Amino acid sequence: MSFARYAALVKNLRGVVLANLDGVGVWDSIRWMVKRFRYRDLGLTPSMVKKYRDRLAQYLNGNPFVELTPPINAVEHLVEVLSNVVEVDVEVLELLVYASTYISPAIVIGFDYLEDVKKLAVDTVNICRDLDLDSWRLHLRIADYTILDFYRECVDEVLSILRSSKPEERVKILKNVIDDRKNRISRDKKRYWRIACSNGKPFLLYIDMVDIVYRYSVVHVLNEDHAACLAIVPVVVIPPNLR
Fold it and tell me: In the beta sheet, which residues pair with residue 44?
């Protein structure tokens, strides 16, 4: 992908989507998303397009879905590295890496991938009621702010880690970054006060990509090109059967 193409997409992107199209009620929610994002783009990862190109053809090319491709080699490399050590579906890892790189919330439609996302989450916003259309619109927009407002600081943090040539120094900085991000996430959760409750079903899960790198001890194979892939990624859960 050319940088110009990446820049044109990232400006207008409102989320990166993952779904099992054979899941019960998923097509209902896909059609719901199509109606709500008529004038904004939603990204699809390469594996999503490869698997479902024919079934999604009518919605591709910005109606509202667009096929994402890696703007730099580090994107594919990180997906490969993580897939070798993290015991979740590779499509979930790809979703997270692309969402970070394209500075967009991840959106999981249906519940097929939810357990894998939960394994990687560091915090969650739960809801105790079904959301109306206005609440969906508002809080999907807030999720967009969540990743955007964190992003520059996240990139700077990762660069500070990867620019260190000493393995022990990298790990030390990693731990500090993870603690700082936990505090930021705790504050960010207050944005969702209108819908949040202590118990209930997940609306949004926070994935700290640096936490994953630390947990699975892969920082030693990364370089500065991976910085864009290692932000805090909010994952919004869209239930099936939305109409």
Answer: 17, 67
**One-letter amino acid of 10:** V
Q: Which helix (H) or strand (E) holds 121?
A: none
**Torsions phi, psi of 84, nearest 5?**
-80, -15
**Rounded CA gap, 29 and 49, in Å?**
18
Interatomic CA distance for residues 18 and 113, integer angstroms: 8
For residue 227, what is the DSSP state?
G
> 230 to each of 4, 31, 56, 227, how far by Cα in Å?
22, 31, 29, 6
Length of the chain: 243
pLDDT at residue 40, as a whole number:
80
- Look at the pTM and tell me if it is higher than 0.90: yes
For 40-76, the pLDDT digits (tens) are: 899 999 999 999 999 999 999 888 999 999 999 999 9
